[in-house]
Amino acid sequence: MEELVKMSPKGQLVVPQDIREKEGFKPGDRFIAVKLPDGVLFKKIEMPNIRKITEQVKEKFRMRGVQ
Which of 19, 36, 50, 61 has the most Cβ atoms closer than 10 angstroms to its Cβ? Predict the structure, then answer.
Protein backbone atom coordinates (compact mmCIF):
# COMPACT_ATOMS: atom_id res chain seq x y z
CA MET A 1 0.00 0.00 0.00
CA GLU A 2 1.50 3.32 -1.02
CA GLU A 3 0.09 6.76 -0.29
CA LEU A 4 1.44 10.22 -0.94
CA VAL A 5 2.14 12.31 2.15
CA LYS A 6 3.39 15.87 2.53
CA MET A 7 5.74 17.32 5.13
CA SER A 8 4.47 20.31 7.11
CA PRO A 9 6.59 23.42 7.73
CA LYS A 10 7.31 21.92 11.18
CA GLY A 11 8.72 18.73 9.62
CA GLN A 12 5.69 16.61 10.49
CA LEU A 13 4.38 13.82 8.28
CA VAL A 14 0.79 12.62 8.50
CA VAL A 15 0.23 8.87 8.30
CA PRO A 16 -2.89 8.27 6.19
CA GLN A 17 -5.94 7.25 8.20
CA ASP A 18 -6.37 3.82 6.61
CA ILE A 19 -2.75 2.94 7.43
CA ARG A 20 -3.09 4.26 11.02
CA GLU A 21 -6.19 2.15 11.53
CA LYS A 22 -4.74 -0.99 9.94
CA GLU A 23 -1.51 -0.73 11.94
CA GLY A 24 -3.20 0.41 15.16
CA PHE A 25 -1.16 3.62 15.43
CA LYS A 26 -2.28 5.93 18.22
CA PRO A 27 -1.35 9.51 19.18
CA GLY A 28 1.82 9.43 21.25
CA ASP A 29 3.20 6.26 19.62
CA ARG A 30 6.98 6.38 19.13
CA PHE A 31 8.86 5.56 15.95
CA ILE A 32 12.52 5.19 15.12
CA ALA A 33 13.76 6.74 11.87
CA VAL A 34 16.28 4.54 10.04
CA LYS A 35 18.31 6.08 7.21
CA LEU A 36 18.47 3.77 4.19
CA PRO A 37 20.50 4.27 0.99
CA ASP A 38 17.38 5.35 -0.91
CA GLY A 39 15.20 6.91 1.81
CA VAL A 40 14.07 6.64 5.40
CA LEU A 41 12.16 3.87 7.18
CA PHE A 42 9.96 4.71 10.17
CA LYS A 43 9.44 1.76 12.53
CA LYS A 44 7.04 1.81 15.47
CA ILE A 45 8.76 0.94 18.73
CA GLU A 46 7.50 0.23 22.22
CA MET A 47 8.94 2.51 24.87
CA PRO A 48 8.92 1.48 28.52
CA ASN A 49 6.62 3.46 30.77
CA ILE A 50 9.35 5.37 32.64
CA ARG A 51 6.94 6.71 35.29
CA LYS A 52 5.68 3.18 36.07
CA ILE A 53 9.24 1.80 36.23
CA THR A 54 10.33 4.67 38.53
CA GLU A 55 7.44 3.97 40.90
CA GLN A 56 8.28 0.25 40.95
CA VAL A 57 11.91 1.00 41.83
CA LYS A 58 10.89 3.47 44.55
CA GLU A 59 8.50 0.89 46.02
CA LYS A 60 11.23 -1.75 46.13
CA PHE A 61 13.51 0.64 48.00
CA ARG A 62 10.67 1.57 50.42
CA MET A 63 10.12 -2.12 51.12
CA ARG A 64 13.82 -2.42 52.03
CA GLY A 65 13.64 0.61 54.31
CA VAL A 66 15.79 2.81 52.06
CA GLN A 67 14.73 6.47 51.77
Answer: 19
